Structures are given as structure tokens and as C-alpha cells.
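in:
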């Protein structure tokens, strides 16, 4: 038989191609360099109410394109934080202790656009804020959370936003053809920095003025003719949300204002209030506030 020869082995790698590699021609549809990531819109929140500041911080910073970079409790601090952070938008309250928002406004608008966000609805305050350069005017309780977010974005882009109260003030001005006669604003607003370089002491409410008009710091109370010891509020067993709602009730807010501040529905506010009244053994708002602030008369036969 004929001898069998093994078949030659086949190389596993192909021989190198002696030709130079082809250079691909540039495509007319090349995407080009990648676009840089959009920077977040930076906001400073100025409000003397810590609950409002906290709520706004959670709401705004929860959006992918917005970041709250600083908070302030009065106009002077708002100016310092704005100067430090150079934000895209400043949210500014009107009634704040020391330097109020109207006094700080002309100093802020030269640094960043300012959107007024306040409970102050007087037409003369609206006109003065706009005259001093505010980029919009929103009154608490007259907008939704989404509308607020859009107003912040619009303010950065130079588009004004107004809630119903502010729009009505502007409409009245347009109909009359002349701005209202300028005079002193309520409670000396707008004069803090004009009268003295140092901030004046916080405004003290007269008996005829309501708490909701002055927006006192949440949980702060005083009684003329004597001091009141700090009440033991833990005895009532309120949840953290109920404590927040009760603080706002004590500050004089309505259910609508509380809903707007906490970004919840009025029905939810009423449910919280019903539970609070039960835990505080109260039938009315004033009675609940008295228990909460420690000013209710002691009743030995009734446990709190």
C-alpha cells in the first residue's frame, strides 16, 4: 500500500495584508463633539420662615435642572448669600425682620434676577417691588408647585410671572393710566437700608395686626406682661408633619396657605388638623394654638 503523508497544517492567523490601510472619508453626518452637560439653575431662597425655606429647598432641588445653593432669613443675609454665590435667580420674601425684602431688592437686582415669593398682597407693595426691578411677583396660595418651578426657570430667562393678586394690581394700573401715588409702605417696608446702615430691630406687631400679615418666625410667641415657659410639646405625640402643620397654624396661616407652603392638598391639611385637635384636646384653632404655645389656662381636672 502507498504510504500516507500527513496533510500540511493550516496557519490560524492570516498573513498580513501588504496594502496600506484605507483612510475612511469624513461623513457629512458626523455628530461632532459631544454637547456639554447643561448646568443646573442655581437659586438663593430668602424667607424668614424656616418651614417655607425647607419646603422650597425640597421642591426645587428635587428637579434635575435646579439647585438651591443658599438660604437666607432676612434681606441683609440674602444680599450676602447672593453676592457670595452669584445665583441665577433669587426668591425673595417681603416681610422679614431686620432688612425686609423691599429694602434689599434694589441691591439684589444688580446681581441676579429676583422673583418675589411672599404672602404680601397689597397693591402698593406689588407696584413698589416691580418698580425696583423684581422680575415677577407670586403670592403664596395662588400657584401650584409646577407653576412655581416654571416661574423660576422663566425668571432666569427674563420672562415675568405674576399670580392673580399681582396681575390685578398691574391691570388696575393699566386701566387708570397712572401708577398709584407713592407713599410710605405698610410697616415701614423699604426703608430699612435707607434710614440706617445697621438693620433695625425686628418689627413688633401691634395688637390690631394679624399674625398672618406679619409672618412671624414659626413657633415664636410672646405674651405681654410676662414671660411664658417653653411648653412640653412632646407630650402631645404629634408626628413630624403634624408638628409642621401646627407651627404654621400658630403663625396665623389659613388652610390654603398651609397647603401651598407644605405642597399638599387642602384636604390633607384638614385631615392633619383634625388629628392635631384630637391630640391637643382642642375644638378650635385658637384653643389649639394656646395649648401649643403654652398659654392655655391650666385645668387640673384635665390631662393634656
Amino acid at each position: 500500500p502507498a504510504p500516507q503523508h500527513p496533510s500540511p497544517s493550516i496557519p490560524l492567523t492570516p498573513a498580513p495584508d501588504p496594502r496600506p490601510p484605507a483612510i475612511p472619508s469624513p461623513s457629512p453626518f458626523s455628530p461632532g463633539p459631544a454637547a456639554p452637560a447643561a448646568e443646573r439653575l442655581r437659586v438663593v431662597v430668602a424667607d424668614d420662615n424656616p418651614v417655607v425655606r425647607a419646603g422650597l429647598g425640597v421642591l426645587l432641588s428635587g428637579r434635575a435642572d435646579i439647585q438651591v445653593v443658599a438660604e437666607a432669613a432676612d434681606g441683609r443675609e440674602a444680599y450676602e448669600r447672593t453676592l457670595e454665590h452669584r445665583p441665577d435667580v433669587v426668591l425673595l420674601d417681603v416681610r422679614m425682620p431686620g432688612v425686609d425684602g423691599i429694602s434689599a431688592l434694589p441691591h439684589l437686582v444688580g446681581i441676579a434676577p429676583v422673583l418675589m415669593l411672599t404672602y404680601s398682597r397689597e397693591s402698593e407693595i406689588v407696584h413698589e417691588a416691580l418698580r425696583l426691578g423684581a422680575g415677577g411677583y407670586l403670592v403664596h396660595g395662588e400657584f401650584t408647585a409646577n407653576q412655581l418651578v416654571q416661574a423660576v426657570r422663566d425668571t432666569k430667562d427674563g420672562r415675568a410671572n405674576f399670580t392673580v393678586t399681582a396681575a390685578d394690581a398691574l391691570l388696575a394700573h393699566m386701566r387708570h393710566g397712572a401708577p398709584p401715588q407713592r407713599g410710605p409702605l405698610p410697616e415701614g417696608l423699604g426703608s430699612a437700608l435707607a434710614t440706617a446702615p445697621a438693620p433695625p430691630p425686628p418689627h413688633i406687631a401691634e395688637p390690631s395686626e394679624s399674625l398672618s400679615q406679619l409672618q412671624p418666625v414659626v413657633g415664636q410667641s410672646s405674651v405681654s406682661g410676662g414671660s411664658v415657659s417653653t411648653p412640653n410639646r412632646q407630650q402631645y405625640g404629634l408626628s413630624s408633619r403634624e408638628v409642621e402643620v401646627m407651627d404654621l397654624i400658630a403663625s396665623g396661616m389659613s388652610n390654603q396657605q398651609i397647603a401651598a407652603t407644605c405642597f399638599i392638598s387642602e384636604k390633607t391639611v384638614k385631615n392633619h388638623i383634625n388629628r392635631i385637635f384630637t391630640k391637643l384636646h382642642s375644638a378650635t384653632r385658637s384653643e389649639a394654638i394656646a395649648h401649643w404655645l403654652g398659654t392655655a389656662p391650666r385645668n387640673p381636672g384635665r390631662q393634656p
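note: The longest strand covers residues 66-72.
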